[in-house]
Design brief:
Hydantoin permease, single chain, mainly alpha, 442 residues, Sodium-dependent transporter
Length: 442
């Protein structure tokens, strides 16, 4: 089916794809996962998994999307007709829906904090008071639902504008701003007395933390941070010109993701160590520790506001891509249908996210397997939905698609050698599936 929308440039696609990857996974989740799992050893595993497993799958999704030129479900139907491979697209759509349902809750928390930061009510508190504030916010049903709804509406308003006028235009402003703000915060954090202890924690591996659980969590982080396994990048690549280099784009997106994760660590851990806090504070590190950290330094209120704006930008660019997969699957390139479907899916996401939003208050006693709604949604998507999707995508490209079709698609817009192509296929066919299966078994 002919598309009526397309990325206007290579940089527009790379920024949007990077924005999809660089969200809560890199800025919010990576620091607390690294902090709880040894810092340097987790970071090293994360880099290895991103390079050897995440990037090959990312490129595989690019190949599927541009080759078929359609949404995540239709792409598999086009490339593998009269088969059940299109269920990979359905799996990605369902998992992305679940992710956005709890992702939007965290987006709402950020909006709540940003509003308080702008009004100056976040300054002058102790770490205990910041902890109590965070608990009171996430337990307040009215506030979390209003904030979550506001985040969803912002996402809807951008995505309904389409690729060029919506997602690409927003990403062109948000992503450069994100990098600039991050550099400012890194400089400020590294100039604190005692900051080098945090740098060592992040960059020097402590091998005592190397175990099966750390490996599994690092693999899940690599998938979550790159948003591979959802077929989100299949959808994004369907809007990609044949003249653009997919290998170069995949490497750029992965490199930016690792770089931003590194910057996030260099913002948080030096400041945490310099001021005597603990690195393993968990998911609340951005909402409890950082406000306390910034409160201890000159112009801390300004820096905290900057960080929250940065976190909001990153969260939104990821939310755009996650919502787009469902919108594209329903609208099928028909721009007249885009707006109503965007609002329909967005509202359904908000409704399905209500249990997650209320998990720390009204529904805090409702548990599934010992986890509340929020934690359970995060667990099944990060540790099952994404790896299973990634496994199926690697098998589809390396075994089901015709080798020459894959080669022709990769050659379009790039000059990749046969040796690199064969190495990539080898990774997809043998290394990626075996690694994912072994991690599951462990």
């Amino acid at each position: 089916m002919a598309k009526k929308d397309q990325w206007t440039s290579k940089i527009g696609f790379i920024l949007a794809a990077a924005g999809s990857a660089i969200g809560l996974g890199a800025i919010w989740k990576f620091p607390y996962m690294a902090g709880a799992n040894g810092g340097g050893v987790f970071f090293l595993l994360f880099i290895l998994f991103t390079v050897l497993i995440g990037t090959p799958i990312l490129l595989a999704e690019f190949v599927i999307g541009r080759r078929a030129g359609a949404d995540a479900v239709t792409s598999y139907k086009i490339l593998a007709p009269h088969s059940r491979w299109h269920w990979i697209g359905y799996l990605g759509t369902v998992v992305s829906f679940i992710i956005l349902s709890f992702y939007s809750v965290v987006g709402g928390w950020i909006l709540s904090y940003l509003a308080r930061s702008v009004t100056g009510s976040l300054t002058g508190k102790t770490q205990e008071q910041y902890g109590a504030l965070f608990e009171s916010i996430i337990a307040n049903p009215k506030e979390v639902l209003i904030a979550q709804f506001a985040f969803i509406v912002i996402t809807i308003l951008v995505v309904q504008g389409g690729i060029q006028k919506g997602i690409e235009r927003a990403s062109r402003y948000m992503m450069p701003a994100l990098f600039i703000l991050f550099i400012i915060l890194v400089i400020r954090s590294l100039t604190l007395e005692g900051a080098m202890e945090g740098v060592r924690f992040l960059l020097l591996p402590d091998w005592s933390y190397l175990n099966g659980e750390t490996v599994l969590l690092a693999l899940g982080q690599a998938f979550f941070a790159l948003t591979v396994g959802l077929s989100v990048m299949v959808t994004y690549a369907s809007y990609l010109s044949k003249e653009d280099s997919m290998p170069r784009s995949a490497i750029s997106v992965s490199s930016l993701n690792i770089f931003i994760s590194l910057l996030a660590g260099l913002v948080i851990f030096p400041a945490v160590y310099a001021l005597g806090f603990k690195p393993d504070e968990g998911p609340g590190i951005a909402f409890v520790v950082l406000p306390a950290v910034f409160n201890e330094i000159a112009f801390g209120g300004i820096f905290l506001t900057v960080f929250l704006i940065l976190l909001l930008f990153a969260t939104l660019t990821s939310a755009f891509s996650i919502l787009e997969i469902g919108v594209a699957a329903l609208s099928k390139g028909n721009q007249k249908k885009r707006m109503p479907f965007t609002w329909l899916i967005g509202i359904l996401v908000f409704i399905s996210g209500i249990p997650s939003a209320l998990s720390f208050g009204v529904f805090n006693e409702f548990l599934i397997g010992g986890k509340n709604f929020f934690d359970f949604a995060d667990y099944i998507t990060s540790n099952f939905g994404l790896p299973v999707g990634a496994l199926l995508i690697s098998i589809f490209v390396s075994y089901r698609m015709k080798r020459e079709d894959v080669w022709t698609e990769l050659q379009s817009g790039s000059s990749i050698s046969r040796g690199l192509f064969n190495s990539w296929i080898f990774l997809l066919r043998y290394i990626v599936p075996v690694a994912i299966i072994l991690v599951f078994i462990s």
